Amino acid sequence: MNLLPGPDGRPRCPWAVSTPDYLAYHDDEWGRPVTSVAGLYERLTLEAFQSGLAWITILRKREGFRRAFAGFDPAAVAQFDESDVERLMADPGIVRNRLKIEAALANARVVDEMGQAFADLVLSFAQSDRPRPTPDQVPASTPESTALVKALKAHGIRFVGPTTAYALMQAVGLVDDHLEGCCVVIDR
User: Which domain holds residue 38?
Assistant: First the structure.
């Protein structure tokens, strides 16, 4: 699928123009560098919750996730216990999947323990020299996303596979998958 004009007539990645939520996410956030530990933990968690669902579901529940997971502060979430799991399982503001919730809490403990080393690890997979793709060149996963999974799992990160890792890489600007000709410019 080729680029499509947004409401302002400028060309965008086709998925971005299907809803106002997607348009805002595409234009203001997707692919822009995220470097903080908390920001990376948030994106990792949201991408894991998205697994098997449409991204729009996660995007529309994002504020609920932020409230439920203490603003994605890894140190705070690392202190959550079984009562918090039950609280989260009853929260209609998030996706209520026990395995994903338990993984988010376990991952917070790993991220909290690693601190900046977690961010450094994720950011070490940046591919800033890669040109923007054409529509037929956007992969679901790459050798780099597979390597990122291996590195994360070696530290104890759970519920992440190559496709989730690649979506994380796209979301936080490790790769720029805005299509060739898209009006969004990412400063690196």
Answer: 34-171
